[in-house]
Amino acid sequence: MSATLRLSRRRFLQVLAGAAGALVVGVRADAAGDDGAPLELLGDDYSQVGPFVRIEPDGRVIIGARAPDMGQGTRTALPRIIAEELDADWARVTVLGMPLGVEDDGGKPRFVYGDQSAGGSTSIPQAWQDLRQAGAAARWLLVQAAARRWNVPAASLRTEANTVIAADGRRAGYGELAADAARIDLPRQPLPLKAPAQYRLVGKPAWNVDARDIVTGALPFAIDQTFAEALVAVIARCPYLDGSLAEVDDAEALKVKGVVKVLPLPGPDPALAVGVQPLAPGVAVLATDTWAALQGRDRLKLVWKPGMRASESTAALEQQALDKLAGEPTQRARDDGDFAKLFKLGRKIQADYFVPYVAHATMEPMNCLALVEADHATVIAPTQTPERAFEVVQRLTGLAASQIEIRFPRIGGGFGRRLEDDYVAEAVLLAKAVGKPVKLMWTREDDFTHDVYRPCGVHRMSAATDRRRRIIAWRHQLASASKRNGRGGAGQQWTSEIYPDDLPAGLVANLQYDWYALDSGVTRGNWRAPAHVSNAFATQSFLDEIAVALKIDPLKLRLELLGAPRPLPYRSHGGPVLDTGRLANVLRLAAARIGWDQRRTNGHGLGIACHFTFGGYAAHAFEVSVENERLLIHRAVCAVDVGRAINPLGLEAQMMGGTIDGLSTALNLAITVKDGQVQQKNFPDYPLARMADMPREVEVHIVESEADPSGAGEIGIPSVAPALANAVYAATTVRVRRLPLMAELKRLL
Amino acid sequence: MQQQPLQAPPPPSEIRPEPKRDGIDVVINGERFRHYGDPAMPLLWYLRDVLRLTGSKYGCGIGACGACTVLVDGQAMRSCVTPVSALKDRHVTTVEGLADAQGNLHALQQAWIDEDVAQCGYCQAGQLMAAADLLKRKPDPSDDDIDTIANLCRCGTYPRIRKAIKRAAAALKEGKA
Asked: Domain range holding A33?
């Protein structure tokens, strides 16, 4: 099978050679129907059958989930992939979150369970490559054990629901075979995998394995955990983008009952990457409980000195962008044909689009529990990048790989914020300094004012059309502050901002993508489907403007532009190809579901948009009206093709949630800067959508596909904002080119 | 058998009231606790740091997001802005106390599982407590009634929360019929 052939031998051995016995804390897989007994009640008498599977004598199968689950569903989906190839009985599967699997390999860490981070929508496609093999290998061991016991060829045996069955009808449960299986060496080469027709779990709906513990309040997030004697730390961080601490008076803070210590923390070292060290200098208050620490922090008398960025403002940054766009680009990311010549010849259309900085606002604020001893460190953190957290701990403690334990329980939202491990660095520095375990807490104000914000930008779009109403020239100029924050040198900054193979590249013969570097003191980072969200807003809004100018139906324009179904090369993350047919298919599906061809006469407008991100294809269509300055979203439709859906119920949730995240952000959210400080402090300044603001239903349509699965955590966002703006135009003839949309719409109405 | 003479017990030499005790009595999930710390401490930190009941979550500290929602005498309240001093002798229910004493899930908890509501799950305890308060007041809630729940969910689970509330309302009605 193709997947088997694609898995390299090195990768295969790397995954299967992991250390045994490292599974921790978890719950039963069939949360909806069991008694929810915690892991402590599970026996110690188990057999380790390959690195991801344990089997108890009673036949209960325990499967490790290696990647962080921040709501995207990996703790359910990854073990399902293993269980499928293992032929496990899902009703008797318990899922356990694995800690980071790391071993010392000649002075370098070796991550023995494969990639345990969660970002870039990669958990599912990676699992499809190596965790199917892990499941097949565990099954192979059990089959070998049965073959030896019965003295029959392994090839004559089959498996079904935790049982090995012989040709003559003899049966042995996995529980009976596990002890023997655990003594057999793992196979030396990749094993054949199931044909899709044999799937019992993949493609069927699976309920969240943590559901019961979530609704009873029993599930411990990192923020809910502590160690005996741990001190709670809160940090007063510099409010300026690049300021420093001038004076500290901690006398009043130390008088608060429960406050134990006040400690300064250094600011970031420019030689190190963002995300492996504190984001800002600060003063930590350590206390016996959170309330005491917060009161202590309130009583600190601090004088902060503004730095070079003291005069930065959102307005000045926008002016800088407009000035830059009038000059030469920092980087020409793509240059096809002869844009300048064709642009002169055709009918010209131009528009500028404005996208603000936005914050992550994860519901669980940053936090970290750290214990640092002379020969051991344990860190429990809500991180998307446990490998990076390990590197932070190792750098700050100098401990060996075997002395560092990184745990990452279920995470209260990630959205890219937790790709950075600044809070891990803070907690480890404090734990080292006080010689006691430290439980670091961030308040919501800390979170809003010290994030790694999604880059703001100004997009200047230019196109020309010919007499046959075809687009003959296209230029996308983007001025943004790169989320690389300087990492990799000046020549690399554009790579995270504009992707050379994003559409309409390959569809318009004369095309330029130009990037202009903005200078900003705001620290930038990854925000769910990073640059795709901003770029799709500009591209898909502009396509609508072209359709209006040419008096062509916006759906027809898109379909004609995509043309015949064919693969286009796509060299950025999510490639190697982009299939125009799959994109056209989700567009048609979304259009059909919203009733695109049925004219609305009641003041309602329809808008549509589509995008390709990280291997997935999505289209959104909305029906809206504007009444008395209120925008009403009557229907929200999303069509998605991520290849084979491992868990359709989880995929639907991701698309529903992505649609709402996209709407919430597009409608009302922006981070602004004034006098070198972020102005938003808490939810009233950054009004995330509440239930009443959102459509009552998001109609999600999943394309059935045999293609290898891609991740679904991010594809639900990019086409939302442009589809919404296009719908608003259809309803009102007001074109909104600036996000957040509501403020601009009210200004324009 | 020897007869005891009928005699009144001697009067006590002095009658004293019970000594005044420090702290604030609060009933949490049916059990009485006494808080001896700062009376201004918000209930949320008393629950989380002192009692180690961590189901109620910190989200904003200003009563804006609802992740800390609990019931006080049956009414939804934001525990992050409710000082323990305001809770003397009042009955607090947290998500840990939503199921009955035998561990049978509340209809809302079961509906939350059945509708597969939770994504990250962090806000859901607060959502459940807000929904419990709603169903008490409106056993058959309309969509507009459900819209009055103003708790934030960053993952965007609102459509499934809506379905789960309706499912729980139907289950409770059926249970009573």
From this structure: 2-216
Residues B51 and B24: their CA atoms lie apart, in Å, by 14
Question: Does residue A388 share a domain with residue A516?
Answer: no
- In the block, tokens 């040709």 appear at A167
Q: Write down the pLDDT at residue A211.
A: 98
Residues in chain A with CB shorter than 8 Å from the CB of B36 are none
Burial label, A233 (beta-carbon count in 10 A; 0-12, 13-18, 19+): buried
Say what the ipTM of the complex is: 0.93
Which residues in chain B are classed under CATH 1.10.150.120? 107-176
CATH of B24-97, one of 3.10.20.30, 3.40.50.12780, 3.40.50.1820, 3.40.50.720: 3.10.20.30
Both A212 and A229 in a single domain?
no
- CA nearest A370: which of A320, A433, A319, A312? A433
Whether domain B107-176 has CATH 1.10.290.10: no
In chain A, the number of structural domains is: 3
Scan residues 614-633 of A and list those with Cβ closer than 8 Å to B: none
pTM: 0.93
Task: Tally the C-alpha atoms within 13 A of residue A131's C-alpha that lie toward its C-beta.
Answer: 30
Cβ B119–A218 below 8 Å, yes or no? Answer: no
Please tell me the predicted confidence (pLDDT) of residue A641: 98
Q: Which residue of A has its CA nearest to B67?
A: A363
- What is the interface size between A and B, counted as CB pairs within 8 Å? 190
Across the range A374-392, mean pLDDT stands at 98
Contact A659 B156 (CB under 8 A): yes
A560 vs A583: CA distance, rounded Å: 12
Q: Does A698 touch chain B (CB under 8 A)?
A: yes
Asked whether the beta carbons of A690 and A535 are under 8 A apart, the reply is no
A207 touches B: beta carbon within 8 Å: yes
Instruction: Determine contact, residues A524/A454, Cβ cutoff 8 Å.
Output: yes
Single out the residue of A475, A517, A528 nearest to residue A494, CA to CA: A517
The verdict on B156 touching A (C-beta cutoff 8 Å) is: yes
Cα B135 from Cα A230, distance rounded (Å): 40
Q: What order do you get walking across the sheet with A376-380 strand by strand?
A: A259-265, A282-287, A231-237, A438-441, A367-373, A376-380, A404-407
Report chain B residues whose CB lies below 8 A from the CB of A690. Answer: 149-152
Nearest C-alpha neighbor of A81 from the set A97, A101, A64 = A64
Secondary structure E strands in B13-142: 24-28, 31-35, 69-72, 75-78, 91-93
Asked if residue A344 is part of any domain, the answer here is yes
A290 to B49: CB separation less than 8 angstroms, yes or no: yes
CATH number at residue A299: 3.30.365.10
Cβ proximity of A481 and A493 under 8 Å: no
pLDDT confidence of A528, banded at 50, 70, 90? very high
User: Out of A216, A691, A697, whose CB is closest to B149?
Assistant: A691
The minimal CB distance from B122 to the residues A218, A412, A653 is found for A412
